[in-house]
Amino acid sequence: MSEDMEGVRQALDRLRIRIDSIDDTILDLLNERLEIGREIGAVKEKAGLQVLDRSREKSIFDRLVARSEGRPVSDTLIHHLYGIVMAATREVQRSRTIAYLGPEATNTHIAALQQFDYAGQFVPRTTIADVFEEVEKGSCDYGVVPVENSLEGAVNHTLDLLFLSPLSICAETCLAISHDLLSRETDLASVSVVYSHPQALAQSRRWLAQNLPHARLVEMASTAAAARKAAMEPGAAAVAGSQAAAIYNLQVLASHIEDSGRNTTRFLVIGRDETRPTGSDKTTIMFVTAHVPGALFSGLKPLADLNINLVKLESRPTRQENWNYFFIADLEGHREDDLIREAIDRMRPNCLFLKTVGSYARCSF
Ligand SMILES: O=C(O)C(=O)C[C@]1(C(=O)O)C=C[C@@H](O)C=C1
Fold first, then answer.
1. 240-274 pLDDT tens trace
2. CA–centroid distance, residue 55 to ligand 1 (Å)
3. What is this protein's function per UniProt (predicted)?
4. Is the CATH number 3.20.20.70 carried by domain 274-361?
5. 93 CA: nearest ligand 1 atom
6. Ligand 1 pocket test target in 30, 40, 63, 96 with most atoms within 8 Å of CB
7. Ligand 1 pocket, 9 CB below 6 A?
8. What is the chain's mean pLDDT, rounded?
9. Alpha-carbon torsion 166, 162, 88, 63, what sign?
10. Cα–Cα distance measured from residue 175 to residue 267, given in angstroms and rounded to the nearest whole number
11. What percent of the chain has pLDDT over 90?
């Protein structure tokens, strides 16, 4: 080793010893923080107080941001890091179980981890109905399910289950979806079959037709199941997220093969919480109108009269009677807002059935 390199090595070693010592201190302090969190949890439980205290969390963020002003730990990094630390502190006070549409490494899993800051017990379930069931029977506190893709539209199964379920929507979270072609093979010419979830295949249709015109396309229950199958089979590939490549030890043969760059999926968190207003909220209602001319118009008229923005309107067959539909409307605002309350009160007499499924913070996509 040259003298220069030796000097570099020694300098790195010295600095890395300091980093190791800082990491040890950070870890010890984090453990101490969680221990204190547990004590706070015991005090709150005795007093019947909720674990989550948003105003306390906000004051912590504000204090830390001011303390770090002009220094390398930015505002964004503080929110990211301390968001995770506080989620972990809440988690030691009361562990949450979150069922999601699995298996592991699906987009729904990633969305669930993102929404709950990686804190909680995450339980994969095979179908959307199973996720609902876990939460309805109380084995899990929350469920995470896909509800809409920007290219493919609504996930009807989720809407149908929500219509019949007593659960509420507690939150929504959006994930930019990117599809990669993953395989054990190292070149496209060796790929004869491509596995994936029907939506992922549909979203990559053009790329697959151009680059793998002779490959057989086989639908699977999830992109993760497709990646697992591709990992076991020579000549096979999967359309899945790049996270699956690391999990199943696959090569990324092509990245971003989706037909449109604006592929985003919206997920719902379902549970029993009633979420407080944040100032940027949405309220989902479901309603059924009579089968007479103008019924939908008169159902929705109060929204127009009160100048409430209708973000989305979908319809689905009720399945109770042929050609009968229920409607799902997302309104801008919170169910505790006077205007939203008034609108729903005015809509109710014009509908055969109406329920508020939840008010929750809008995701920022
Ligand atoms: O101060 C509390 O009440 C805590 O439970 C601690 C803590 C935190 O991590 O700092 C965690 C949860 C609350 O939402 C607020 C703050």
1. 988 788 789 999 999 999 987 778 899 999 999 88
2. 9
3. Catalyzes the Claisen rearrangement of chorismate to prephenate and the decarboxylation/dehydration of prephenate to phenylpyruvate.
4. no
5. 5
6. 40
7. no
8. 93
9. negative
10. 8
11. 76
Q: Whose CA is nearest to atom 16 of ligand 1?
A: 57
pLDDT digits (tens, 9 = 90+) for 133-157: 999 999 999 999 999 988 788 999 9
Residue 176: name the closest of 153, 203, 158, 149 by CA. Answer: 149
Q: Closest ligand 1 atom to the C-alpha of 41?
A: 5
Q: How far is the CA of 86 from the centre of ligand 1 (A)?
A: 6
CB of 108 closer than 6 angstroms to any ligand 1 atom: no
Q: Rounded distance, CA 264 to CA 148, Å?
A: 8
Once rounded to an integer, what is the mean pLDDT over residues 306-332?
A: 91
Beta carbon of 117 within 6 Å of any ligand 1 atom: no
Q: How far apart are CA 265 and CA 43, in angstroms?
A: 40
Structural domain 180-262, CATH architecture: 3-Layer(aba) Sandwich (3.40)
Tell me if 3-93 shares its fold with 180-262: no
- The vertex-59 CA angle with 55 and 64, nearest 5°, equals 150
Assign domain 97-177 to its CATH architecture.
Answer: 3-Layer(aba) Sandwich (3.40)
pLDDT digits (tens, 9 = 90+) for 51-105: 989 899 999 999 999 999 999 999 999 999 999 999 999 989 988 899 999 888 7
Give pLDDT, residue 176: 87
| CATH tag, 3-93 | 1.20.59.10
Query: How confident is the model at residue 221, as a pLDDT?
Result: 87
